[in-house]
Amino acid sequence: MMADGDDERAPLLGSANERYEDLDETSQHYRSRWWSIRIMYLTMFLSSVGFSIVITSIWPYLHKIDATADASFLGWVIASYSLGQMVASPLFGLWSNYRPRREPLVVSISISVAASILYSYVHVPNYNNKYYMLMSRALVGFGAGNVAVVRSYVAGATSLSERTSAMANISACQALGFILGPAFQTCLTLIGEEGVTMAGIDLQVNMYTAPALLAAVLGIVNIILLFAIFREHQVDDLGRLSKSINAETEECGDILSDSEGKIDQIAVVASNILFFVVLFVFAIFETIATPLTMDMYAWTRTQAVFYNGIILAAMGVEAVIVFLAVKILSKRTGERAILFGGLAIVFIGFFVLLPWGNQFPKIKWEDIKNSTIPKSILQMPHAASYEMITEPPANRTSEPTGCPAIQSWCQYTPVIHLAQYLSADILIGMGYPVCNVMSYTLYSKILGPKPQGLYMGWLTASGSGARTLGPVFVSQTYTHFGPRWAFGLICGVVLLTTVLLGAVYKRLIAFSVRYGNLQG
């Protein structure tokens, strides 16, 4: 145990060394408060891991367990996580307003653990396997509704001067989850598609199920730490201790009474819209990454999982660096200006993805062999260019690869060059974390000292709605119209969002600042 001092009191990844002269918060309270905040960081990290650890392998796993599943159903599987989170977030948020936060946290994590185990068994049924996968991902998402509890706790347990740093730390931990999740998946690809079968419990431990089992183990560790370390504290905007929950007796005490002044509801609605769009565009990107690279570059399932795992991990490293930079820049320019810059970078990233040139993707031979392609498609321009078609099955030793000929746009849409894809990864990996942390940092400051559980639940629900609609939108648009329409529409959405931000710019200020202006 470290001695009392600045290092012990500094928040994770932060440099906040604020010392309060308020005698109500002792050194012991301060340490307990920050250790509890760190447990919330860990909970956010593990929630992110639970989502990302299987994200690059969902498509090949889904296709393996149920051949009837197509790219459109993939969109629903990925969206089911966010749909579950959207339903659960307001419920857990409201629960945390009136009861100790440990209760919704433990229940939600337990649900995620059970769902991860279910994911490892979706291969067992003889039919409708894809629906079992859909159910498991929806339950994992329902458990991830605890994100609202995490954000509301950190917002209530930090002063106004600490909050941007703390919210950046939450985002950094979330990004670390996105780094290590795909990294774990990439390492576990070494187990292979067959892996090891435990006949006694009818479990196959392979490159698809091992990540989910690991997520379940990490969830159990999280529950243990919540009981061992987490204690609930609340401070006001000046950092003065307002509430401390006795963890042994589970006495919650009185909810902080409403301060004078009303929350700016227009700013609240605008913040939810901004957060929705930010998560919408990123959900689209992470959903389409594996199918896009398999179509554009004729990667196999294993290659797509492996390479995209590396790319997402690299984007996570980039995001952590961005979060650290944001904590410094926000003190000079303010959160609103940085949010503007983040949206501009995201727009450029998706604009870079628009196809151009006269080189076209290779066509998957298997579709033509099975005669599933209408003659009208085969007679389209470029369809007869056999140098673009992979070698026939007789000469192949691996799975069919390339752009499915049933997707008619493959015949006339130029390939997205690998340099384009990697450049877009870098730009989106820079812009998304900026927009993410700035949008909900502003939101938490707009709410001020009011109980934030339900409000944070709505914010998380709006983000979950984006993660629900994003995969469905992109899977349908991409499958039927191709990347040009999909990414072009996203550019339009980001532009409209920038206009909205400009319209409400002056309203996105902290509750205490607004209240102080009214009094002054």
Walk me through what this model shows.
With 520 residues, this protein is mostly helical. The protein folds into two domains: 23-359 and 414-519, Growth Hormone, Chain: A (Up-down Bundle), CATH 1.20.1250; 365-411, no CATH class. It is 65% helix and 2% strand. It has 18 helices and four strands. The strands form two sheets. A two-stranded antiparallel sheet has the order 1-2. Strands 3-4 form a two-stranded antiparallel ribbon. The longest helix has 33 residues, at 265-297. The protein starts with 5 loop residues before the first helix and ends with a helix.
Domain unit count: 2
Q: For this structure, what is the CATH homologous superfamily of the largest domain?
A: MFS general substrate transporter like domains
The class by helix and strand makeup works out as mainly alpha
**Mass-distribution shape:** globular
Give the N-to-C terminal Cα separation: 46 Å
Oligomer: single chain
Strand fraction band? under 5%
Number of helices: 18
Whole-number average pLDDT? Answer: 78
As a whole number of angstroms, the C-alpha radius of gyration is 24 Å
CATH architecture verdict of the largest domain: Up-down Bundle
Residue windows where pLDDT falls under 50 for at least 5 positions? 1-23, 246-259, 370-397
Number of strands: 4
CATH class call of the largest domain: Mainly Alpha
The ordered string of helix (H) and strand (E) elements is HHHHHHHHEEHEEHHHHHHHHH
Strand order of the largest sheet: 1-2
What is the CATH third-level topology name of the largest domain?
A: Growth Hormone, Chain: A
**Helix proportion range:** 55-70%
Largest sheet: 2 strands, antiparallel
